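Researcher: Good morning. I'm working through a list of sequences from a screen, and I'd like to move beyond sequence-only analysis. For each chain I'm collecting a predicted structure so we can compare shapes side by side. This is the next one on the list. No need for commentary yet; just the structure.
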Amino acid sequence: MKVKENRTVLLVSMFIVIALVILTIMGSYAFYTSVLKTTGDGTGVESTTADLKLEFEDNTSDVNLTNMIPGDSYTKSFTVKNTGSETIKFQVVIREVENTFENKDDVTISVKKDDQNVTIGEVESIKFPENTTPLSDPITIEPSEDAESFEVSITYKNDPTKDQGKDMEKKLGGTIFIEAIP
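Model: Good morning. Structure tokens for this chain:
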């Protein structure tokens, strides 16, 4: 009889320990994933205190440019809306970058909010990146029913002192998104 009781106590103890380990792991996972998560098709950012909605005028966050000629410019417009209850900071970022230009300094990218430059360091524009890169300084957005308008501009400078012919049929591309800053 005592052996049966010991076995039952051992099994119940093991069950409790396993349950506690599982709950601890699940609790830790929930803590880290609930701080910031992407929802839907990756165009919105949701956190525990704010809900940012990112909408592109052309319904896509992708940039795919080929056959640009010196002097060309491309603009992508989007809005960001904080429908949460807390103020939040974010940056505009480009990821999945493709830049096959040889004259890398000839192509620039800039971000504006309501015609005000928000590119990193308040410079007019930065060189089009070759990998995932923040495109803006941190931007603070208050909870509001109104969306704030942004514009990403890509410009291929015309430089008559260079042979820009070697950049014909080169590609620029990437995905524009926003990244919350804790």
